[in-house]
UniProtKB/TrEMBL annotation:
Coiled coil: none annotated. It comes from the Bacteria. It is found in: Cell membrane. Pfam families: MscL. Homopentamer. One of its GO terms (cellular component) is plasma membrane. Keywords: Cell membrane, Ion channel, Ion transport, Membrane, Transmembrane, Transmembrane helix, Transport. This is Large-conductance mechanosensitive channel. It is a multi-pass membrane protein. Signal peptide: none annotated. GO terms for molecular function: mechanosensitive monoatomic ion channel activity. The chain crosses the membrane at residues 12-31, 65-86.
Length: 122
């Protein structure tokens, strides 16, 4: 069961989707902060102090935006590091030589050969 879970969890599509969701959520915070803390206060200034969410004047809060950007880069770096480790593990697994596949005809010929050898000994 554990091996099946590992195959599922570390399959390329599942891992790519998880990374996309995490990065998307972190980037969503940047966009939200950009709109809430940078753009809307400027729009509020252009409309003589109107803030569309609270209808009050709100100063530009660039510190919150910078914090969202820093959080995004920290999250993205952590995900990058994690994916890099997973990819190294995958490369090691792929580098292991696979047993050569024998088709049915070759397998049958090997069985016949072994039977003939055994028959000569008897």
């Amino acid at each position: 069961m554990w091996n099946e879970f590992k195959k599922f969890a570390f399959k390329g599509n599942v891992l790519d989707l998880a990374v996309g969701v995490i990065i998307g959520a972190a980037f969503g915070k940047i966009v939200s902060s950009l709109v809430d803390d940078i753009i809307m206060p400027i729009v509020g200034l252009a409309t003589f102090g109107a803030d569309f969410s609270e209808l009050t004047y709100k100063a530009v809060n660039y510190g919150s935006f910078l914090q969202a950007v820093v959080n995004f880069f920290i999250t993205a770096f952590a995900i990058f590091f994690f994916v890099r480790i997973i990819n190294r593990y995958r490369k090691k697994e792929e580098a292991k030589p696979a047993a050569p596949k024998i088709d049915a005809k070759e397998e049958l010929l090997m069985e016949i050969r072994d039977l003939l050898k055994e028959k000569k000994r008897i």
